[in-house]
Design goal:
Layout lengths: L2 H12 L14 H13 L5 H4 L9 H15 L4 H5 L1 E4 L2 E4 L12 H14 L6 E6 L5 H9 L3 E7 L2 H13 L6 E5 L15 E6 L14 H4 L15 H9 L4 E9 L6 H11 L16
Parallel strand pairs: 3-4, 3-6, 4-5, 6-7
Antiparallel strand pairs: 1-2
Helix pairs in contact: 1-2, 2-4, 6-7, 10-11
C-alpha cells in the first residue's frame, strides 16, 4: 500500500471517530491524520502547518506509531498535545498540557492589539505591553514577533504555563523583548518601574461559568488545565479583578483589550463604563458574528 492509499484508508477508518471541536476549525480527519503522520515520521508541526507539507514515506514501525497516535486522538486527546505544536498567527508554538491550547478565535484579539500598537508608535518609540493570564504566551509572543517596537511583560499564576511561555520565547529568539514571570495577574509586575508605564494591557482570561465546566467536551475539561478556562460563578471574576487592579500601571492614554465569553460583552461594557476610569469602549464580533 502506497502512502496515498494508506492516507485514504486511515481517513475512511477514523473519520467518524475523530471528534472535532467548533473552536478548532483547522481540524478535520484529513488534517489531524496528516499532522500525526508527520509526528510519527519525526517531524513535530501543527495541524495548520501540516496541511502545507508533503507526507513522507513511513516504515513499518512508524506506521504502528501513527496508528497509536490516531487511536489516542480518537479518545478525545487534543491533537496539539500529541504533535507538541500549535499554530497561532502563523507562528509555530510549543504546545503541551501545561497551558490551554491557543485558539484561532483569539487571533482576533491579537490582530486588534497589533493595530493598536502600530497606532501607538506614532507617539512613542517603544510600546510597552502587559499580557495577563498569558498561558503559553501566544498573545504576547505574536505581538513582539510582528511588531519589533513592542516590549511585552507576560504573567500567569501557573508556574507550568510560565515555563512553557519561556520555552516559546526562547525558541523564537524573543528574549530581549518578551519577559515572562509567574504571579497572580498584575502582582507579577507590582513595582514602581511599571506604574504608569504601560501602553496596553491585553488578557485572554478564564471566562467559562464554573457551573458549565462539567458540561464541556472532555477533550477540554479532561485534558486542558482547568484554571485556564474556569472563570468563577459568573465567568467574569478574573476580568473584574483586572479592571480593578490595572489603572495604576496604565499611561494616561493607554488601552485594555480583552477576550470575553459568549454573551458577556454587554456586561463587561457596563462594568467598564461604571468604573469611571475607562472611556472609548468598544466591542468586536468574532467570525460567527457574536459580540
Amino acid at each position: 500500500m502506497n502512502k496515498e492509499e494508506l492516507l485514504s484508508s486511515l481517513i475512511d477508518e477514523w473519520e467518524d471517530k475523530l471528534h472535532v471541536l467548533n473552536d478548532k476549525p483547522e481540524e478535520n480527519a484529513d488534517a489531524i491524520i496528516r499532522a500525526l503522520w508527520l509526528k510519527a515520521s519525526g517531524l513535530a508541526v501543527s495541524v495548520r502547518k501540516a496541511a502545507d507539507l508533503p507526507l513522507p514515506d513511513l516504515n513499518e514501525e512508524q506506521i504502528k506509531d501513527l496508528s497509536e497516535l490516531i487511536r489516542i486522538r480518537s479518545g478525545d486527546y487534543p491533537t496539539a498535545y500529541l504533535t507538541g505544536k500549535q499554530c497561532f498567527m502563523g507562528i509555530e508554538l510549543i504546545a503541551d498540557s501545561r497551558a490551554l491550547i491557543p485558539r484561532k478565535e483569539t487571533e482576533l484579539l491579537c490582530s486588534i492589539c497589533l493595530n493598536l500598537t502600530e497606532k501607538m508608535q506614532q507617539n512613542t518609540d517603544i510600546v510597552k505591553v502587559m499580557d495577563i493570564c498569558c498561558g503559553s504566551g501566544n498573545l504576547g509572543i505574536a505581538l513582539a514577533f510582528y511588531n519589533s517596537n513592542c516590549i511585552v511583560y507576560a504573567s500567569d499564576i501557573s508556574h507550568d504555563a510560565v515555563e512553557l511561555t519561556i520555552e516559546n520565547i526562547n525558541s523564537l529568539g524573543l528574549r530581549q523583548r518578551v519577559m515572562a514571570k509567574q504571579g497572580d495577574m498584575m502582582a507579577a509586575f507590582d513595582s514602581q518601574e511599571f506604574y504608569e508605564k504601560i501602553d496596553l494591557i491585553m488578557c485572554n482570561p478564564p471566562y467559562i461559568f464554573s457551573s458549565k465546566v462539567p458540561q464541556m467536551h472532555p477533550e477540554i475539561s479532561e485534558n486542558e488545565p482547568g484554571m485556564a478556562f474556569d472563570g468563577g460563578t459568573l465567568g467574569i471574576g478574573i476580568i473584574k479583578r483586572l479592571l480593578q487592579d490595572s489603572p495604576p500601571f496604565l499611561k494616561k492614554k493607554a488601552w485594555i483589550a480583552l477576550e470575553v465569553g459568549l454573551g458577556q460583552g454587554e456586561l463587561i461594557t457596563m462594568l467598564l463604563e461604571r468604573s469611571g476610569v475607562f472611556t472609548n469602549i468598544s466591542t468586536g464580533r468574532d467570525e460567527s458574528g457574536n459580540t
